[in-house]
Amino acid sequence: MKIRQLEISDVDKVVEIHQNTFSGFFLTELGTRFLKLYYASMIKNKASTIAVGIYADDDSLLGFSIGSTQSKGYYKRILKSNFFKFCLIGIYLVFTKPMAIIRLMKNMDKVKKESDDGLYCELLSIGISADQKGKGYGKVLLEAFEKEAEKRNLKKITLTTDYENNDGVIAFYKKAGYEVFYEFTTYPNRKMYKFIKTV
Ligand SMILES: CC(C)(COP(=O)(O)OP(=O)(O)OC[C@H]1O[C@@H](n2cnc3c(N)ncnc32)[C@H](O)[C@@H]1OP(=O)(O)O)[C@@H](O)C(=O)NCCC(=O)NCCS
Q1: What is the DSSP letter of 110?
Q2: What's 132's DSSP letter?
Q3: pLDDT in single tens digits along all 199 residues of the chain
Q4: What domains can be seen in the chain, in order of their start residue?
Q5: Pocket of ligand 1 (CB under 6 A)
Q6: Residue of 54, 137, 163, 172 to test ligand 1 pocket, by largest number of atoms within 8 Å of CB
């Protein structure tokens, strides 16, 4: 098992793991083309992104964690970095999945509390391939993400996760030392936790 930075060549596998592990999430509903552009833009933007993969000995990707070095303004930076391609996909989605686009726009700014300044690192996705869960890889991956944050001198890490029907994932984060920062509701009516950890 190996840990290393995600490369652009990992995008297809990252999207495959995302689609298997995040079914029903609003980003997933935007489809494969969107997800490929989304993850490729993040992985390319190395200065603003922490992107770590866990690989088997044969180099196949078992899971990934990816997030921003600074939550505030991150999506704008990603959008700008590939503006033309996001516009094209946006136009396509307006016609094919209008509700998903509305949901995306309403949820893009994830800072949901006045006292939340967004000046912290944010874990945006962590996923382990369905057949590899429960083997300790998620823990290793989360620690690798945190180490990378520490290397960049980032002290606080946050993440968002579902409030309801999510006991397993909540237990996973709490075991790793994450605490409830606050609760909020996303559009249209999904209750979420924002967790935080100081590293
Ligand atoms: C959440 C996820 C990343 C955890 O990865 P994993 O490899 O299955 O977890 P690990 O085996 O490393 O478990 C680490 C610890 O968390 C605990 N844990 C993990 N899943 C758990 C569950 N469902 N219920 C209770 N505890 C759990 C383990 O018992 C372990 O505890 P220990 O350190 O005391 O042994 C993985 O299950 C996953 O990809 N889930 C789907 C995607 C997802 O929901 N991501 C989070 C979105 S916010």
Answers
A1: -
A2: G
A3: 999 999 999 999 999 999 999 988 888 989 999 999 999 999 999 999 999 999 999 999 999 999 999 999 999 999 999 999 999 999 999 999 998 888 877 776 555 687 899 999 999 999 999 999 999 999 999 999 999 999 999 999 999 999 999 999 999 999 999 999 999 998 888 899 999 999 9
A4: 2-198 (3.40.630.30)
A5: 21, 126-128, 133-139, 161, 168-169, 171-172, 175
A6: 172
